[in-house]
């Protein structure tokens, strides 16, 4: 059936969500369909979040009772140099991680789609994702060691100077970002690849008949039709990389000095190590707000709710 | 490797694809070797190398004697070849023997942990994907007031810092009397994750509506449409999501550590964490850790090889049949 | 330091009705006792103790849970908050003041009195460490540790240093004494030139005289405290429960400046090059001739194949004596235990010669009881390891206690970056005066 309909290349997206083709509301059915997820949402996400919001206005050390202190935590955060440092460090990480991860993953997805359709290739590229992130961090921590790491050994064999990957303030964040690009590259590529697969072939056929070259086909067909998945990938990976924690915790622990003290690590230290849970909650609320804005902007500019295939 | 190179190479694809189908029904392209194709393969091989070489290092380390690793840090071959690390992983060494070889004195019941990991990961995967698919369908296809608002709310849970949820959830599981049960480990992720719903919704949005509309005209209700049309047509995305969910559940560490201390529900990640450094300033049992990591990854690797073809190949053709 | 803390999800809380449900009141000592420890190497020894304990008390069954240091404290705090804490757990001096302040530990004074636990059987000082500011006892000592020099025998031999030479090194903060001379001589560059020879290239060092684990944060337990301890400097105004730190003292800053200078001279790796593999593994790889480390690392150091390890006591210092931080672990009972009687029985058993002799026999750690500690020394000797470098400090009374104060975590958050900065050469040692002010402000509140 679908093959008989050929969407025009220039077709501008008709927002699917607003297509009022059906007048009748499916409310009852919808309620049944989302009921189990709704329970999970309320119990395991909403309630803890609201409680966290409440705690951000309190002084709370985990063991006693929370004491309401109004906006004190927020006022303190505004003057907290380490918080601003943490945001800057996290921002640097997110940019490096997302730029490289997305470019590599998109490239690999296109290669998987057009050049190497073998499951073996896909399997190989997904391998790093099969390893838990803490172990991945430990593995690279060891392989990239300045004195006895194999990577520095190879660098020396090549006649180049050794690099203090984790110990130097300049390299720490790029190194950590690279480790996570390594782990997630194949995974992200697989998501994008799934998106590529979902693009019907006949669209390409039409493009070929119209005489579109590869460059034009990529920008006019592949990218627009990949958009729903691209938005998914970008939103999820950007938010995910703001939550970076494990890799830093098992390697640099925030050092040297504070060069890799990312926001989640700072929150963790405040909440757990220093047991200043109210303050940590306030930090989390601010992070939540920032992520909300980032996600909103992404959805807006990438028009994630729309599909080109009407 | 520049991106432009890659794009060129890649872009040769779609345009050729249509002509190829026409020209050779068997699917074997007959084309001269192009520069683009060569560089595409070069990039791909480089990417695979970058991905795989650390694994060779893991294998090399797993086959070494832990005590000889430091002295042979520059050797590409196993240092003082030994199966000891794998024996430790499978719990085939006595604590004394293990300690003597640089391991820990903790007993390891490998096959039990493996079974537990399978039980937990399967529970989470099956339930989460099913419930999330239902919800995703409601968000993508059903018309109801407040739909987009509720979806945004669901999506916002992606933003919730994990620090908010661990302890309340732990308390809840405890109060439900589910500590040290499989259900207790699985429950928080069984009903939904924002990612799963978001993922499936995006795919459902991208799917063609023709068949649904037709079924609707035939008088099918939404439940039937969901089970008989949407699900079969979304086998690819659903299989992909299942695989990713399974891997995430398989690799989860902190939650099962918190909730499932007991040996009878202990999962692999928790059971095998004894290979990490156990005391401050200590070094990990590197060969044991690498052997454990490889062994723990093997089941999901096999799973991928078994279902991987289905996962990704079915996606593109699903809407056409 | 690569102490890490588990996962992202780690902690959290938003606990509501937590402490509401208190401990029960089962007077009879029966049932299961949950016991936690972190060091897997000691697990077989304590498992043996648990088995013996069960044989003597058939009504009581001890269930041991072991989890590594990195996960231990986060899961323990969660367990405390949720009310699922173990009845008894291995406690650390840097953590216990917090637990006391939050009323999570059960005082043991009553039990010590009624059951007549002999506090004199422990090595002097150890038992005093576990008394809170309120004068109550919250732990019975289980083991102790001091610091020594681990050195690569092949390297000292080729440098012409005998074991006797290594055992009588002396140090001062002005020229580093024979300690620095030995370190310099043991440093070798890629051309084979030693650190004290003309033409030594400090940019191409093959073997460092002294390895570096890290900056040591505010305690410097294995890094620098054995040096500062000889200058008459103490971490705090009094110990335990000091309220003023002394990082602004010129004696302290001079010592740190000397230590940092080793990296500038090329005798010790730069801080930035030490983030990665553990310092012990680097030693095992032959990249350093001497490591300063604690006695709990004996097993690690003597395990490396192809490396002959010698152990020397720390150098004598300004006051002509040696010095070592004296630290120890204890077993504590959580306040929420449902079985205080049984838990007390188990803690007393752990602190008795019966159990500590078993631990001694495994030669992994030094038990807190004097006689058991001697047994451990013999057990180590039987395994071919001479541990007198560690025990000597105790016998000569040259140890000082681990500094116990409130705010340990907040102090660490200030001192770790400050010390890192000094050691990395980014700030002068005098910058520690400012850090000290921040630390002391914590107590002013």
TrEMBL record, chain A:
Subcellular location: Cell membrane
Pfam families: BPD_transp_1 (PF00528)
Gene3D superfamilies the record matches: MetI-like
Domain ABC transmembrane type-1: 87-298
Name of the protein: Sugar ABC transporter permease
Listed transmembrane segments: 27-47, 93-113, 125-143, 163-182, 225-245, 277-297
Highest taxon of source: Bacteria
Bilayer disposition of the protein: Multi-pass membrane protein
Lineage: Bacteria, Bacillati, Actinomycetota, Actinomycetes, Micrococcales
Coiled-coil residue spans: none
Keywords, in A-Z order: Cell membrane, Membrane, Transmembrane, Transmembrane helix, Transport
Family that this chain belongs to: Belongs to the binding-protein-dependent transport system permease family.
Database matches in InterPro entries: ABC_transporter_permease, MetI-like, MetI-like_sf
UniProtKB/TrEMBL annotation, chain B:
Keywords: Cell membrane, Membrane, Transmembrane, Transmembrane helix, Transport
Region of interest: Disordered: 1-32
Biased composition (Basic residues): 18-31
Membrane topology listed for this record: Multi-pass membrane protein
Residues in ABC transmembrane type-1 domain copies: 114-307
Coiled-coil segments on the chain, per record: none
Localization: Cell membrane
Membrane-spanning segments: 38-59, 118-139, 151-173, 185-204, 225-250, 286-307
Pfam families, alphabetized: BPD_transp_1
Similarity annotation: Belongs to the binding-protein-dependent transport system permease family.
Protein name from the UniProt record: Carbohydrate ABC transporter permease
From TrEMBL, chain C:
Keywords: Signal, Transport
Recorded superkingdom: Bacteria
Signal peptide extent: 1-22
Classification via Pfam families: SBP_bac_1
Keyword Ribosomal protein found: no
CDD domains: PBP2_TMBP_like
Cited InterPro entries: SBP
Family: Belongs to the bacterial solute-binding protein 1 family.
UniProt-recorded name of the protein: Sugar ABC transporter substrate-binding protein
Origin species: Arthrobacter silviterrae
């Amino acid at each position: 059936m679908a093959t008989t309909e050929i969407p025009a290349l220039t077709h501008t997206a008709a927002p699917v969500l607003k297509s009022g083709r059906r007048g009748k509301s499916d409310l009852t059915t919808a309620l049944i369909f989302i009921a189990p997820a709704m329970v999970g949402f309320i119990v395991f996400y909403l309630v803890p979040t609201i409680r966290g919001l409440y705690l951000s206005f309190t002084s709370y050390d985990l063991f006693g009772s929370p004491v309401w202190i109004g906006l004190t935590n927020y006022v303190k955060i505004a003057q907290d140099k380490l918080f601003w440092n943490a945001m800057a460090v996290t921002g640097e990480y997110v940019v490096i991680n997302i730029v490289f991860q997305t470019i590599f993953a998109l490239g690999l997805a296109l290669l998987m789609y057009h050049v190497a359709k073998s499951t073996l290739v896909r399997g190989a590229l997904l391998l790093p994702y099969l390893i838990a992130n803490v172990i991945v961090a430990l593995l690279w921590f060891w392989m990239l060691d300045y004195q006895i790491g194999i990577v520095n050994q190879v660098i020396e064999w090549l006649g180049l100077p050794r690099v203090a990957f984790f110990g130097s303030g300049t390299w720490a964040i790029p190194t950590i970002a690279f480790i996570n690009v390594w782990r997630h590259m194949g995974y992200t590529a697989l998501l994008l690849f799934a998106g590529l697969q979902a693009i019907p072939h006949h669209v390409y056929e039409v493009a070929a008949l119209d005489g579109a070259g590869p460059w034009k086909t990529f920008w006019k067909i592949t990218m627009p039709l990949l958009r729903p998945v691209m938005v998914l990938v970008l939103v999820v990976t950007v938010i995910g990389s703001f939550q970076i924690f494990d890799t830093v915790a098992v390697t640099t622990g925030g050092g040297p000095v504070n060069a890799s003290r990312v926001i989640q690590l700072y929150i963790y230290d405040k909440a757990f190590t220093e047991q200043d849970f109210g303050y940590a909650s306030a930090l989390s609320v601010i992070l939540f707000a920032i992520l909300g804005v980032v996600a909103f902007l992404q959805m807006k500019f990438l028009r994630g709710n729309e599909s080109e295939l009407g | 490797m520049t991106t432009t190179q890659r794009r060129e190479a890649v872009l040769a694809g779609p345009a050729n694809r249509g002509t190829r189908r026409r020209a050779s029904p068997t699917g074997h392209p007959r084309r001269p070797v192009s520069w683009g194709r060569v560089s595409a393969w070069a990039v791909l091989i480089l990417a695979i190398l970058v991905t795989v070489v650390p694994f060779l290092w893991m294998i090399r380390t797993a086959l070494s004697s832990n005590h000889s690793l430091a002295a042979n840090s520059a050797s590409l071959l196993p240092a003082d070849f030994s199966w000891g690390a794998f024996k430790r992983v499978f719990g085939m060494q006595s604590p004394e023997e293990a300690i003597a070889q640089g391991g820990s004195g903790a007993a390891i019941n490998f096959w039990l942990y493996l079974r537990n990991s399978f039980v937990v990961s399967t529970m989470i995967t099956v339930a989460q994907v099913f419930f999330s698919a239902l919800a995703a369908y409601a968000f993508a296809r059903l018309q109801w007031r407040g739909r987009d608002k509720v979806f945004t709310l669901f999506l916002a849970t992606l933003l919730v810092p994990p620090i908010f949820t661990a302890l309340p959830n732990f308390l809840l599981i405890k109060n439900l009397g589910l500590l040290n049960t499989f259900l207790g480990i699985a429950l928080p992720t069984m009903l939904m994750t924002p990612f799963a719903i978001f993922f499936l919704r995006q795919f459902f949005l991208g799917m063609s509506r023709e068949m649904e509309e037709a079924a609707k005209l035939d008088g099918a209700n939404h439940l039937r449409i969901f089970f008989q049309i949407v699900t079969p047509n979304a086998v690819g995305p659903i299989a992909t999501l299942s695989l990713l969910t399974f891997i995430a559940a398989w690799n989860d560490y902190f939650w099962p550590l918190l909730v499932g201390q007991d040996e009878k529900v202990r999962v692999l990640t928790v059971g095998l964490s004894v290979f990490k450094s156990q005391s401050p300033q200590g070094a990990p049992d590197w060969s044991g850790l690498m052997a454990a990591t490889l062994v723990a990854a093997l089941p999901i690797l096999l799973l991928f090889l078994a279902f991987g073809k289905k996962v990704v190949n079915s996606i593109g053709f699903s809407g056409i049949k | 330091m690569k102490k890490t803390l588990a996962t992202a999800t780690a902690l959290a809380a938003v606990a509501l009705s937590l402490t509401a449900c208190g401990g029960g009141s089962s007077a009879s000592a029966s049932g299961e006792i949950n016991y936690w420890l972190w060091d897997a190497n000691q697990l077989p020894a304590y498992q043996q103790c648990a088995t013996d304990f069960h044989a003597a008390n058939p009504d009581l069954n001890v269930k041991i849970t072991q989890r590594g240091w990195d996960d231990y404290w986060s899961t323990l705090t969660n367990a405390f908050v949720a009310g699922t804490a173990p009845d008894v757990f291995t406690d650390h001096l840097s953590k216990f003041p917090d637990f006391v302040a939050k009323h999570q530990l059960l005082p043991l004074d009553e039990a010590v009195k009624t059951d007549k636990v002999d506090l004199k059987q422990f090595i002097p000082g150890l038992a005093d460490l576990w008394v809170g500011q309120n004068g109550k006892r919250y732990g019975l000592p289980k083991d102790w540790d001091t610091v020594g020099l681990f050195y690569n025998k092949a390297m000292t031999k080729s440098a012409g240093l005998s074991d006797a030479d290594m055992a009588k090194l002396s140090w001062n903060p002005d020229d580093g004494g024979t300690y620095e001379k030995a370190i310099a001589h043991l440093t070798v560059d890629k051309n084979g030139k030693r650190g004290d020879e003309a033409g030594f290239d400090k940019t191409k060092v093959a073997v460092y005289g002294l390895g570096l684990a890290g900056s040591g944060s505010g305690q410097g337990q294995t890094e620098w405290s054995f040096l500062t301890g000889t200058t008459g400097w103490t971490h705090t105004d009094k110990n335990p429960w000091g309220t003023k730190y002394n990082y602004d003292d010129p004696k302290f800053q001079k010592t740190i400046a000397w230590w940092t200078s080793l990296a500038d001279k090329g005798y010790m790796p730069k801080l930035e090059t030490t983030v990665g593999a553990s310092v012990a593994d680097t030693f095992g790889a032959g990249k350093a001739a001497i490591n300063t480390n604690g006695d709990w690392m004996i097993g690690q150091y003597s395990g490396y194949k192809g490396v002959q390890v010698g152990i020397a006591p720390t150098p004598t210092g300004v006051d002509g004596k040696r010095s070592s931080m004296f630290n120890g672990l204890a077993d504590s009972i959580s306040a929420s235990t449902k079985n205080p009687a049984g838990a007390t029985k188990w803690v007393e058993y752990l602190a008795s010669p019966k159990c500590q002799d078993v631990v001694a026999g495994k030669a992994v750690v030094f038990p807190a009881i004097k006689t058991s500690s001697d047994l451990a020394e013999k057990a180590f000797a039987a395994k071919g390891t001479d541990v007198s470098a560690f025990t000597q400090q105790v016998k000569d009374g040259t140890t000082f206690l681990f500094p116990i104060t409130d705010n340990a975590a907040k102090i660490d958050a200030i001192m770790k970056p400050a010390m890192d900065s000094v050691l990395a050469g980014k700030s002068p040692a005098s910058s520690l005066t400012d850090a000290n002010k921040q630390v002391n402000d914590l107590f002013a509140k």
